[in-house]
Amino acid sequence: MFLKRQPKLVWLFSLLATTITFVISVLLLQQVLSSGTIIYELGGWSPPWGIEYRIDQLNAYLLLIISTISTIVLVAAHTSIQKELDTHRQAYFYMLYLLSLAGMLGIVATADAFNVFVFLEISSLSAYALIALGKDRRALWASYQYLIMGTVGATFILIGIGLMYQMTGTLNMNDLASRLPEVAQTRTVFVAFAFTVVGICLKLALFPLHLWLPNAYAYAPSVVTAFFAATATKVAVYLLIRFTFSVFGLSFSFTTLPLQTLFLLLGLLGVFVASIAAIYQNNVKHIFAYSSVAQVGYMIVGLSVGTTLGLSATMIHLFNHALMKSALFLAMAAVMYRIGGMQLSQFNGLGKQMPLTMAAIVVGGLSLVGVPLTVGFISKWYLVLAVIENGWWHVALLILLGSLLAIVYLWKIVEVAYFRSPAHNSEPVKEAPLSILIPVWVLVFANLYFGIDTRLSVEVAQTAAQSLFGITP
Length: 473
Known about the structure:
By secondary structure, the chain is mostly helical. About 75% of the residues lie in helices and about 0% in strands. Helix 11 packs parallel to helix 17.
């Protein structure tokens, strides 16, 4: 706020804040992997009276994903928003960006169920404002649509938390996990579970609760889309894992209730319906937005397996999808910077005019498809292994078929960029500036590197999955 008259200083301050957050996240993950869960009692008040921060393998992993993506995206933000936002709005963009980041980190770090709701509101309110900053007037409608759907989701989560508190007298997640089994067969707990899961699935954009997502991604400023596509849905998946596995418990979530069948059905429907919808889009941001709904479907299919390998596959895809989508949407920011639009027709001949940017989109797209030597292949490999281990051969075939649909919508972009000529009356387009290209290619190389060296993503995901299942490595 104090620096708002000089947007460049606000950007440098924001970048410093996110870089420090990234360094702390790396150190936290190292400490958790070497010495176990870290517990911090706020103000020295022990739970259940006080609020507790609890960092285990799962949320240390998520903190790393969120802080890494937020830092890389912010490097490109200063150049990108110069074209997409008025000067007087730029400082407010960084304030909202940091607020949204703080909310996401808080959701992941806290061990208090009510504080999950508080941080969710901090993150969501700033997200609505960030989306509304988009140049296109449709950004206001997209923001309003997300506001309504997001508020319904948050209210459902709050009702679920309130009902759990009514039955147990505690809001601490560890306490809830130990007290809920005593009252698990009551109607109130069933209702609490239903409200919580549906509320989280709204935030998650799980089919058919995804209607807010395509417009929100398409009309928000490009760097906002790159940030949210890589982090917001991942935080919602984390919440779903945390509540179903840690708070309510595996046996209640998957045995008492038919969650396994429901998740499998909705996950597969999400993959196919969203992929087919993506094929028929003419706005490139819309194509990749619908692709995000399909990728959420894959994560939910992994959860539905209900095994350590299935949960590992979901968590590996959390990491890998963040790398894919941030690379793709940041490359979209580069295109937006030069041509000011996202219609497929505007991509004619861009393969020759912006070779580095289009090459990044192709590599990110191949990763989405799941081509070997990319992170997408690792995700699909572990997901297929998990469903085959469960004897679901037909699901494995459907996953492979869903990947083939991704080739169709990726080819639409490749065709216009590489096999069509620019319009005769159009001016030559320059390659994107280095300040955007460097972060894009850092993410592209990460897509390739972690597709070959999987020690970080796979080993941490497997360790976290085993701890959630109560298995000591």
